[in-house]
Amino acid sequence: MRNESILGALGCRLLALLLLSLLPGCTRAGDEGASTPSPSGVGGGVGAEMGSQEKEGPVAESQTVILAGGCFWGLEDLLRKIDGVLDTDVGYCGGENANATYEFHPGHAEAVRLVFDPARISLDELLVNWFFRMHDPTTVDRQGNDRGSSYRSTIFYFDEAQMAAAERAIRVVDAAARWPGPIVTTVEPVRNWSPGEGYHQDYLIKNPGGYTCHFLREWTPIPIDAP
């Protein structure tokens, strides 16, 4: 009798599992195709099926450069969209004091710190065909309606290789005569980088239609010679 009871129980369980597998939308944890939440509680499910993308993972050989060219809101908004740029944040660089703020940043330029993947875009390409295309590098301490040294055009370098790339990019764009006047962009070492306040970060994402004086000019790509 005990064996018959066991066999009967197993038969009922197998029948229940068979019926469950035939019901639409029913899956068990561990089944192939089942949606399991990520540790953060995000991912999988309907959003994943619709093609939403997770943020790219870290790149082993990523590089960082700091660029200034007027109000950092518009500059960041264009730089973030370039293929190969992995991350951006805005802040103040090149001035006298550490921990600079919007209210107190003597000598600093409003700037964007960006992390990029050099396997996808070189620093020369980033500077020549993007940075010099999205702002006017021929005006001293001015960009659009914004005036003062905070709005100067500057490439801040972390090492000699970046300094050489910056100087080379200026020569290339000057020679291509894409602007009516000479390039006045300065090349300066990174000094007293200070991250900007939270409300300045991703400003034009938070405030669509907000102020910007940056846009991409009509631009035939300038050939980049290997350094």
List the helices and strands and how they pair.
Blueprint: H1 2-22, H2 45-49, E1 63-69, H3 72-79, E2 85-93, E3 109-116, H4 123-134, E4 142-143, E5 146-147, E6 153-157, H5 160-176, E7 186-189, E8 194-195, H6 203-206
Parallel strand pairs: 6-7
Antiparallel strand pairs: 1-3, 1-6, 2-3, 2-8, 4-5
* Fraction of residues in helix: 25-40%
What strand order characterises the main sheet? 7-6-1-3-2-8
The second-level CATH architecture of the domain at 63-206 is: 2-Layer Sandwich
**How many H/I helices?**
6
CATH topology of the domain at 63-206: Peptide Methionine Sulfoxide Reductase, Chain A
Structural class: alpha+beta
Radius of gyration: 27 Å
Instruction: Give the percentage of residues in beta strands.
Output: 15-25%
Largest sheet: 6 strands, mixed
As an assembly, this protein is single chain
Q: State the CATH superfamily name of the domain at 63-206.
A: Peptide methionine sulphoxide reductase MsrA
The total beta strand count reads 8
CATH class of the domain at 63-206: Alpha Beta
H and E string? HHEHEEHEEEHEEH
Poorly predicted spans: 1-55
Distance between the termini: 87 Å
Shape descriptor reads: globular
Provide the residue-averaged pLDDT. Answer: 81
Structure report:
It is a single chain. 30% of the residues lie in helices and 17% in strands. It has a domain at 63-206: 2-Layer Sandwich (Peptide Methionine Sulfoxide Reductase, Chain A). With 227 residues, the protein is an alpha+beta fold. Residues 1-55 have low confidence and may be disordered. It is built from 6 helices and 8 strands; from the N terminus they run H-H-E-H-E-E-H-E-E-E-H-E-E-H.
